[in-house]
Amino acid sequence: MDGETQLRALLTKLDATDPPVSVTDIVAPFRVLQKDLEEQGIPIPESLRYELIAYTLIGRIGQEDESRWGTYYGPMAVFSDNEGKEYDAPDLESITEGALEYWQNRHRATSNIVARMRYADLIWDFSKTVAGSNPDVEYAQSVIDSTIDLLKKGWYESVRHAWLAIERALSVALSINDKARVAKVRDELIRYENSVCNDESPGSWGRSFDLLVLNKSVDLPDVQEDRIILDLEGRLARVVSPDEGTPISPLAVDHATFRLANYYSRKDRWDDVKRVMRLYRDAHLELANSPAVSASISAAWLQRVADALRAKGMRDDAKVVLSRLEHVQGRIGEELTSHSHEVSISKEELDHWLDDITAGRIDEVFSRVAHYFVPRREQIEEQIKDLAEKAPLQALIQNVITDENGRALGTVGSV
Is a pLDDT exceeding 70 seen at residue 118? Predict the structure, then answer.
């Protein structure tokens, strides 16, 4: 059986499959088929390559991000050879007009809503880049309508995937200035958040605020905006004073506080700014008293709280936090553990080094010692860059220099 026949059988099975089914679920059998055909020496049909491309492209993560191609979708991975030349997988050149035509045919043929949405979104995203022409608006409408349908049926594989899809649908609806569909996405976004929100899981709430309240392009009725703000207020009240036995979640406190504080700042409601920032302050002061939280972690959080209060002009409140911070930093030394590593230097090596560095006149010795021991800026910068490449996560973390009691003397980074 040739590859095209086997692919048609696979697509027939896909089209008869009811979601929930994820993009990962869809691409898996295509990869199996590709491997089987290669092992049997059967040519890979172009249509199979188009399917593999369709389901291995990755959509952007945030509102401001875009792929290296300037599109919403981008390569699944980027590789570099020994000379530093980069290769995309899949690459943009593999997305041809033939691929677009194939996806258009599949969009018309398939009854699988996940597949239909993916084909429509790829056509909408790549037509201008690949073919130099604007796609028909029906593909944008298909993306939006399919997203809403999947949300209503609860067919997204995770809350995270649902949020990414909602954000994409809203962006597409705004790009075609379809006010009716913008309103539908808006209402479904609010409904979905209310259905999945959990105070202790900050990733499950706050998106209606981010995507609607902060988005001037969305027509948000006052009654909906007020409801979103009241929900955030209620959530903040609960996370700063959780039920007995439930620890305060600093991430949840931050998640609610900064949204409300920024909202009230924009509205010039400074009494409300101070109110929510003090709830934030008090929650972190309470956390700093908890024996379950280490002094080093408490100090990091309190420093952040003090900085946030100063940024809002609340210097007296910041002083209260800094006073507590100084006390917490004094406990860090008690938690620190020592680690030693022994290095052996022979007496002959040490004598040889001393003879070299102390030879000659006294002014020459001082000059040599200074040259040897004073750090050189260029060398330090190269070392930092090298460490940042070898340990990128560590390079993102601010380092705090402390005295023997754990009190902060200075900070370095992040790089």
Answer: yes
First to last CA, the chain: 57
How remote is the C-alpha of 21 from its chain's centroid? Answer: 24
- The 3-state DSSP class for residue 152 equals helix
Q: What contacts 394, CB < 8 A, 6 or more positions away?
A: 387
Cβ partners under 8 Å of residue 66, min gap 6: 60, 72, 74
Tally of domains in the chain = 4
Instruction: Report which secondary-structure segment, H or E, holds 7.
Output: helix 3-15
> How far apart, in whole angstroms, are the C-alpha atoms of residue 100 and residue 88?
19
Beta strands 58-59 and 73-74, pairing class: antiparallel
- From 328, 278, 269, 264, select the one nearest 308 (Cα to Cα): 278
pLDDT of residue 398: 67
Flag whether 413 is in a domain: yes
pLDDT at 406 over 60: no
Tell me, yes or no, whether 3 and 128 share the same domain: yes
Compute the distance between CA of residue 69 and CA of residue 75 in angstroms, rounded to an integer: 9
Is residue 190 within 8 Å of 211, Cβ to Cβ?
no
pLDDT given for residue 35 in this prediction: 95
pTM: 0.81
Domain containing 392: what range? Answer: 387-415
DSSP strand pairing (86-89 vs 77-80): antiparallel
Alpha carbons 310 and 284: distance in angstroms, whole number: 15
From the list 190, 226, 194, the residue with the least C-alpha distance to 208 is: 190
**Residue 115 burial (CB < 10 Å; 0-12/13-18/19+)?**
buried
List beta partners, residue 248: none
Residue 380, in any domain of the structure: no
The 10s digit of each residue's pLDDT in 263-284 is: 999 999 999 999 999 999 999 9
